[in-house]
Amino acid sequence: MKKRDLMMIGGSAALALGPFASVGMAMEPRIYYGFQAEQFEYRVSDESEKRLVWDTDAFVGTDELKLRWQGEGERDLDADSYEKLENRFVLQTPISDFFDAKGGVRIDTPDGADRWYGTVGIVGLAPQWFEVDADLFVSETGDGSARLDVEYEGLLTNRLILTPSFEINAAFSEDREIEVGKGISSAEIGLRLSYDLIDRAIVPYVGVAYERKFGDTADFAKHDGEDYEATYIVTGIRLMF
Amino acid sequence: MPNVKSNFLTRLALSTSVIGALMTAPLAAFASPGHGQGHGSVAAEIGTPGKAADVTRTIKIVMEDNFFDMETIEVSAGETILFQIENKGEFVHEFNIGTAAMHASHQKEMMMMMEHGALDVDKIHMDKMKMDMGNGMTMEHDDPNSVLLEPGKTAEIIWTFPADAELEFACNVPGHYESGMMGKVRLKS
Amino acid sequence: MKINYIKGVLAGALAMAALSTGSQAATYDLTVDYVTIDTGDTKTTGIGYNGASPGPTLRFREGEEAVINVTNNLKEATSIHWHGLILPYQMDGVPGISFPGIEPGETFTYRIPVKQSGTYWFHSHSGFQEPDGAYGSIIIEPEKREPFKFDREYVVVLKDKHPHSGDRILRNLKMMPDYYNRKQRTLGDFIDDVGKNGLGATLSERGDWGSMRMMRTDIEDVQGFVGLINGMSPDQNWTGLFKPEERVRLRFINASAMTYFDVRIPGLEMTVVQADGNNVQPVKVDEFRISVAETYDVIVQPKDDRAYPIFAESMGRSGYAFATLAPREGMQAEMPELRTESPMLTMADMGMAHGDMGHGDMAGMNHGAAATDSGSQGSMPGMDHSNMGMGEKADPFYAAGSGLVPVAANGGKFLSYGDLKAQKPLYAERPATREIELRLTGNMERYSWSINGVKYEDAEPIRLKYGERVRFKFVNETMMTHPMHLHGMWSILDTGQGKWNPVKHTISINPGTTVYSETEVDEPGEWAFHCHLSYHMATGMFRKVVVEGGPTVTQLGNGN
To answer: Which residue of C has its CA nearest to A128?
Structure first.
């Protein structure tokens, strides 16, 4: 299944359920929907490599159950290829006041080998306002991996926001075909300064990001003649509709 | 020596008469709106309690919740009126003759009475009124220019109006004046 | 001659018959339309009545039957609820409870036997039509003379008009609960607090709130609105004329979707004479807080030949409404100084749900000391208070130490629920037959609001028995203020005044407090009972009340 097909299915589901979003005083649960692009940025590395990176999210559903599509990607603009192209379709439900559990599939279709994964995870707001997203993946090849994403929004003013972010990936077994080694495979830290230009809907930002591969994963990269680490200046826009 | 003695006598006479004059002043017919011992502050010329023999007219005043049945009272300068006041409402009301300024300060006093439990919306607590406010003053409501009536009660005031003054009759129970429970006294010369 | 005589008798008989079938019914025709709402700054498409928002002021007479024909010109169903009116439940206008609603193109005839007088309002009870502009006012003339006098009157309707539609606002709140909160604490505030209280105390205080994941500045969910008075923004300056020395009656109605306003008229004291349409023992105040859906009638007596500002600042200080009272056309009162600092919730407002916050160092929490009601009536000649033990009175309807306690801008008297006493009790005093506890609950992070932890769609109706006197115990376990509104029957707010407890239709419950109200269950049928904050009501803070027993109400269909 191509990425495009999946996006169409998700999109039409959202459109079909849209009109029900403004139910009056009836007894049916309300249906909500939304789209966010948490990242949509242009990156230039310290080695002048150019990337286009995105992290988008759309959902439709009730308070109790949502269908959610998460799409992440990294496009190498010089080589004209997809370094990373992930699409996740999960069902999400609340498990506590501040956390949801989610489960579904993740489909990776970058340049190189494709992979399907089953995924479960939790997402929510931890004490002291840390936004946490943690997932476990099991691939079609039987390899397990995990990802942890943490973000904090620091209000410099009510519109100017400084967001440090941290992501770490770990693989429980090697998957040489997709160049992932056992152990902590990669990590990324970022610092982005954003400005709420139009409500929370259109939010331009600038920032820095540092990516690094570790252990065998780093070795695989070196083997290919690639860098195992890179620092980027990023400029982008956040969207919320 | 005789000069000293006569000077002393003169001074004694003078001071006695001055003191005498001062002492009789409070007994003069300046009625002041106040409680028990009065305020002793400068009282405006609002008239004096009258004598039954001088009454030329009777005006019936009906108090309701929260208004008087009339908007104006017309009297001639110097006339003595018998007011027959009846409270047909369900709340305590006052009928008070004075200037707007006097009413304003009296409203503050009546607010105090309510806060101290001497006055309920529909009851007057006489015992609480006799309570000492801490400086020898009490909250008794016993001035000749006003009556405070519980529902169903009646009272009379005989009042001799002055020659010229801007007078209002009012109920100063908290909130009633602002709600319109007041009217003008038109003095015709 | 004989024929004339017969005609005369017949004419007389017909006239008598007409008189005896009841007083002439006031008939209104209302259309529900899409309208353009232009606040000067923003132009949005909203919903109005007879082509305008707010809709017209309807005038009824106590004792008459009011007939209102409502024609729906929208592309979706609509409804009109008569807020505060006692009427047969089928005329109450709540789709799904009173009737199915009014379909596009349909005309529904409301017939209301008017059994009360005072100031009320009406609004749509469908979707978010009311936040989008579907509201209007009602004046009901009394049969008997009112216990106050006035020379002229004005309706003053407050509204928080937002450039976003109600649907969009809720969607945004669901994605990000603080979407509309631009009064959050920033780095600058942190640095100020460190300067005032030291790093340790500041970190500790931030840590306490952070561990709860609650914001002290969570007072107003939806900021960014333009405050309107009678549909006009501050720039558009609605003006009410008066002649100096006249008594003016101002009928304040808060028709907002989400916003409480603190109302004052600098230079004029206001004498509150009615609350929620019912006469109260008059009380003089300098400022009052009006919850969403409440009404207050005040008498003012402007004496000077100048313009006075009618000024309403939102409770969270993010917006305001402004109008002018003037002796002549073409005047604009001077804008008072804005109070822009947001109040901040304190641990006291967390009250019920978080009783175990036993953190020692609360140095950063001085903001919300209970406001003192020094009852300043001016100097009391000759009255020595110090012996009397007349201490400062905190408003008992706020948690002790709450950060929300309002203080009058001029330091004078701020109205409290405790000051409201019925002018004439509507019901004889008797003990309640039972108590029903309603915990006001919710999850700000999910923007999900409920009663007793259960949303409307998952809840059983509240069942009451006709003839009982039920005592509602509202326990606010959230940190927001909720104006609770019971349709169809009066709520006697327990302010500790016994038979003088005020009779209201909307009761505001502050965070961390418990408030009691009693209702004589004397109207059969099914009624809505909900928080009147539009987006709380929509996400589940709502219940259906079913009154069992009582006279069977003949099936009142469309206008029959």
So the answer is: C210
Whole-number Å distance between alpha carbons of A24 and C529: 15
**A144-151 and A160-171 strand pairing:** antiparallel
Our CA angle for A171, A175, A176, nearest 5°, is 130
Question: Which residue type does A165 have?
Answer: S
What are residue B123's phi and psi, to 5 degrees? Answer: -145, 150
C-beta of residue C78 within 8 angstroms of C-beta of residue C103: no
Return the percentage of chain B with pLDDT > 70, whole number.
Answer: 71
- Return the amino acid letter for C507: I
Q: Are strands A50-61 and C320-326 parallel, antiparallel or unpaired?
A: unpaired
Give the integer Cα–Cα distance in Å for C125 and C81.
6
A124, two tokens:
């929510």
Angle at C73 between CA C70 and CA C77, to 5 degrees: 80
Neighbours of A, requiring at least 3 CB pairs below 8 Å, are C
Give CA separation, B117 vs B65, B112, B114, B147, in Å.
21, 9, 5, 19
Q: B39 to chain C: which residues are within 8 Å by CB?
A: 381-382
Q: Using CA atoms, how far apart are residues A189 and A209, in angstroms rounded to an integer? A: 6
Are the C-beta atoms of C238 and C230 separated by less than 8 Å?
Answer: yes
* Sign of CA pseudo-dihedral C421, C427, C429, C431: negative
Give which of C130, C174, C203 to mutate to test A binding, by max A Cβ within 10 Å: C174
Residue type, B130: K
Give me the DSSP letters along B31-98. ----STT---SPPP---EE--GGG--EEEEEEEETTEES-SEEEEETT-EEEEEEEE-SSS-EEEEEE
Touching partners of C (3+ C-beta pairs < 8 Å) = A, B
Say what percent of chain B tops pLDDT 90. 56
Q: How far is A76 from A43, CA to CA, in rounded Å?
A: 10
Tens of pLDDT, residues A63-84:
999 999 999 999 999 999 999 9
User: Is the peptide bond prior to B66 cis by the omega test (within 30 degrees of 0)?
Assistant: yes
Give the range among A130-144, C378-392, C533-547 with minimum mean pLDDT.
C378-392
Residues 6+ apart with CB under 8 A from C324: C237, C238, C239, C240, C307, C308, C309, C310, C331, C332, C333
Whether C98 contacts C56, CB under 8 Å: no
The nearest CA of chain C is from the CA of A61 a distance in Å of: 11
In 3D space, the residue among A111, A71, A110, A74 whose CA is nearest the CA of residue A234 turns out to be: A74
Min CA distance, C207 vs chain A (Å)?
7
In this prediction, the answer to ipTM > 0.95 reads: no
Chain C closest-CA separation from residue A118 CA (Å): 26
Q: For residues C307 and C150, what is the distance between their CA atoms, to the nearest angstrom?
A: 19
| B36 against C246, higher pLDDT | C246
| Residues C194, C195, C201, C206, CA torsion sign | negative
Helix (H) or strand (E) holding C169: helix C166-175
Nearest-by-Cβ selection for A25 from C96, C182, C211 = C96
Read off the pLDDT of residues C74-85 as tens digits, 9 standing for 90 and up.
999 999 999 999
Query: What would the two tokens of residue C260 be?
Result: 């409480």
